[in-house]
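PROTEIN SPECIFICATION:
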Amino acid sequence: MHIKRGCKGGHTPIFKGDKFSLDQCPENDFEQKEMKDIPYASAVGSLMYAQVCTRPDIAYSVGMLDRYLHNPGMEHWKAAKRVLRYLQGTKDYMLTYRRSDQIEIVGYTNSDFAGCQDSKKSTSGYIYLLVGGVVSW
């Protein structure tokens, strides 16, 4: 996925309180035609690759966007572009690991309660750090 050179980078991959739902999916021919040539699936696929390989910070956003691959709406596309702008603005960020004599594994987990607007299912996530560096997410 190509990100425009010089595009303004974002500070967060998603706005606090953003909610996505099936109500934002195209409901008529005009809206479906509007989304027809937008490379939503390609963008989300590229974001998934980045998230799995090196960017655990976008995991939640990518998971939300992935739910609407079958029929994305313009709000979903705007959110995907926001994540891409966030990556552009944080491209110099990196996972770092340091040498230590003391090996410490720390894990964190979080979940919401019925956060999915459509199914009322909860979303959870986890992250494990080894000597302060992320090793699993």
About this structure: The mean pLDDT is 88. The longest strand covers residues 105-111. The radius of gyration is 17 Å. The beta strands are 105-111, 124-130, 133-136.
